[in-house]
Write a structure and sequence with these properties.
Helix content is 39%, strand content 15%. The protein contains 15 helices and twelve strands. Helix 2 (30-39) runs antiparallel to helix 12 and helix 14 packs across helix 15 (374-385). The two termini are 28 Å apart. Bound molecules: pyridoxal-5'-phosphate (PLP).
């Protein structure tokens, strides 16, 4: 191949580790690229384009509104900013300075992770609640309603919830309790797709705001994400993201912004550095429509066939297909780290899932592998595992 990466001297990699951000996330299909190419060739009003995106995100998620962000991490920052400022443009102008403003976000200890930084970036202070009995094996109790109550002090504005297959079942009760106490519920579901049904599940379970990554399973541009949720919160998030260098008399606000509540345009907000271009908005929207309409059983069956062929090409190896949120192949290996190093040493470096490598299991995830790359992947695996 003789393309941009060859000209730059950057190696093309086979990423069988999933839609990892540091390896470029998802790969886009032609329909998405065509939309981006079309979008790149005309000028548009970004607020009008985000209004259209909002309608499509709303219909895919069941939320009242939504916006395209520059990734799920940026969406978390905007979610926190929306909960702190609401539609008060003086508060928007102050962020990230939250001195004197209610800006505490409650989080179960067991949900804390490296993306918490995104919430703090808006000026929020994270307050740990609950115990980690399940995580440490000390006990069986999860977050309880009284633990949320005990943390409410007039400064708490929201509760942040990290969705995983293990935590998702707790969300309806946690959300009901938090909302009854006047807290907004922010759900980080960045990597909780597939299944497609999760596009709607967290809104249905009571979230005020839900975050998805556009560059993972949805298959949109790598630098995109989605924030979906309640209309006024999404309006706040969008106003804090958009370029606001506009004469107040000619301000055409996104159509779901309630102008009675925002008569004057705010200045550039805390999200101005999270600009999303027209090409990215168009690409994400087309990718979302395609993802939402996908026949999951069919997609899983196709993936399973490809994985079976990979397993069959490794005779003598114990392999098994695992149907988790994605369909993957697990390969038992005696020395996982050594095999992974061999895979990376080839001319087309091959990355595999390393979560259980130390336990002797290599994971092959095809979400970011094109079918035409399967042969190179099989060759590499054969050589590394010989
Ligand atoms: C990937 C991920 C993010 C960040 O998503 P980006 O779209 O890369 O910004 C946030 N939270 C979780 C749990 C993730 O897995």
């Amino acid at each position: 191949m003789n393309g941009i990466y060859e000209r730059l001297g950057v190696r093309r990699r086979i990423n069988a580790a999933g839609t990892l951000t540091r390896l470029g996330g998802s790969l886009m299909d032609d329909a998405v690229l065509d939309a981006m190419r079309d979008a790149a060739r005309s000028s548009v009003d970004i607020a009008e384009l985000q209004s259209a995106a909002s309608r499509i995100i709303a219909s895919a998620t069941g939320a009242q509104a939504g916006l395209v962000t520059s990734g799920a991490s940026a969406a978390l920052t905007l979610a926190a900013a929306a909960c702190i400022a609401g539609l008060d443009i003086a508060r928007m102008a102050r962020l990230p300075d939250t001195r004197g403003l209610p800006a505490k976000i409650l989080m179960a200890r067991t949900h804390r992770n490296a993306y918490d930084h995104a919430l703090r970036l808006a000026g929020a202070e994270i307050v740990d609640i609950g115990h980690n009995d399940r995580g440490t094996g000390a006990g069986i109790r999860g977050l309880e309603a009284w633990e949320i109550d005990a943390a409410i002090d007039g400064q708490a504005i929201a509760l942040a919830f990290s969705a995983t297959p293990e935590t998702a079942g707790d969300l309806p009760a946690v959300a009901a309790t938090a909302r009854a106490r006047g807290l907004k519920v922010i759900v980080d579901a960045a990597a909780q797709l597939p299944p497609v049904s999760n596009l709607r599940a967290f809104v249905a379970a009571g979230a005020d705001l839900v975050v998805f990554s556009g560059g993972k399973a949805i298959g949109g541009p790598q630098g995109t994400g989605i924030l979906a949720g309640a209309r006024d919160l999404i309006a706040s998030a969008l106003l804090q993201q958009l370029d606001m260098d506009v004469a107040p008399a000619r301000w055409a606000a996104p159509d779901f912004v309630d102008r009675a509540k925002v008569p004057v345009p705010p200045h550039h907000g805390i999200g101005r550095g999270f600009k999303v271009g027209k090409e990215d908005i168009a690409g994400l929207i087309v990718a979302l429509e395609r993802f939402a309409a996908r026949d999951e059983a069919q997609a899983a069956a196709t993936t399973r066939k490809r994985l079976e062929a990979i397993g069959a090409a490794l005779p003598g190896r114990t392999t098994r297909i695992v149907q988790g949120r994605a369909t993957t192949l697990e390969i038992d290996v005696a020395d996982g780290p050594a095999a992974a190093a061999k895979l990376l040493a080839g001319e087309s470096p091959i990355h595999v899932g390393e979560r259980d490598l130390a336990k002797g299991t290599m994971i092959v995830d095809l979400q970011a592998v094109r079918p035409e790359s399967d042969a190179i992947l099989i060759d590499g695996l054969k050589r590394a595992l010989a």
